[in-house]
């Protein structure tokens, strides 16, 4: 449960202004664009605002509740990155280590030069994929579902995504056999890089990824509802998945994709495989805003968290400058990328009042979070509408939260 546990004024918020969050977001449900949502905002370790609205399953008439399970998709990536950086702190790898040191299939990579997906022209990469490339999405890997170019098409043609016959080890071998979009370390492209990072974690720990997560993050933080699939005793809490109807604009159920969360996956996706609750994910972000520690449990050193929250893109560039493909073209002005999540480098360019140094990311079904170490704020939004670019909710939530700060 995520309960408000402070007078908002005690942590610098105007309560009436926080209520604007609910008033604004309720319109998305009332006019049919979203089925339902959940919001949690904390400051200085206290829950200042927590609300739910609408339905987790509108066809069944089931409301969003405090313990609703959400597909967090790419909000899995920061958790995978934290586990990896725990291994970094143990000296098990350096950020400059070639990934091929741990996954030999990634030696001798080829880079796309031209041609067609059926007859590609490639050249040998001059730079190996390094560990920091995986953490920052500068490896030159991609996602087939982005439909951003010929290499994406090669991924789709090879069955490199959403393939129930591939486990994580086999998926990595398949990805390694396909060309890179660019020379590692020269640009940014959203990709399977964090899934590859998950496989490195398995190799370094000798554990499956779910075991590594349970031992290093979800167990220590008490994230008991963060899971890779909804077990039968959890299934009724799982929100339905929706897409926007192309004619009416209404949230339309998408069970063909959504039902996969009800069965145990063959591949444990460190890039997008988790389900979680608002309460669980708020504990994860609270650990980050506190510099790697929560309730006496330290997962990372404070300097490590701060280092992850710096912009690691080449030359200090931004996603709008270095990003490849359509994903980088969506509302990422002013955003760089750290080791596992986006980093707000220039609030003026973002055109939403926020704080430089925020760590932020979201998921395919329009979930989102940010951690603001300077203001000691964490904010979380959960819903289930694909794709995440459908509505500008993330920017609107920032407007509403920061407008409520009055200290």
Using the 3D structure, state the CATH architecture: 3-Layer(aba) Sandwich
Helix coverage percent: 25-40%
> Main β-sheet: number of strands, strand sense, barrel status?
8 strands, antiparallel
- Overall 3D shape: globular
DSSP, total strands: 17
Count of separate DSSP helical elements? 13
* CATH class group: Alpha Beta
- Uncertain runs: none
The sequence of SSEs as H and E is: HEEEEHEEHHHHHEEHEHEEHHEEHEEEEH
How many structural domains?
A: 1
For CATH, the homologous superfamily is named as: DD-peptidase/beta-lactamase superfamily
Give the percentage of residues in beta strands. 15-25%
Instruction: Provide the structure class.
Output: alpha+beta
CATH topology: Beta-lactamase
> What is the CA-CA span between the terminal residues?
28 Å
Fold and architecture overview:
- The mean pLDDT is 96.
- With 407 residues, this protein is α+β, with helices and mostly antiparallel strands.
- Helix content is 29%, strand content 17%.
- 51% of the residues are buried.
- Helix 2 packs across helix 7.
- The protein is built from 13 helices and 17 strands.
- It has an eight-stranded antiparallel beta sheet, with helices on both faces. The protein has a three-stranded mixed beta sheet with strand order 8-7-17, with no helix packed on it.
- It has a single domain, classed as DD-peptidase/beta-lactamase superfamily (Beta-lactamase), CATH 3.40.710.10.
- The longest helix is centred in the first third of the chain and has 16 residues.
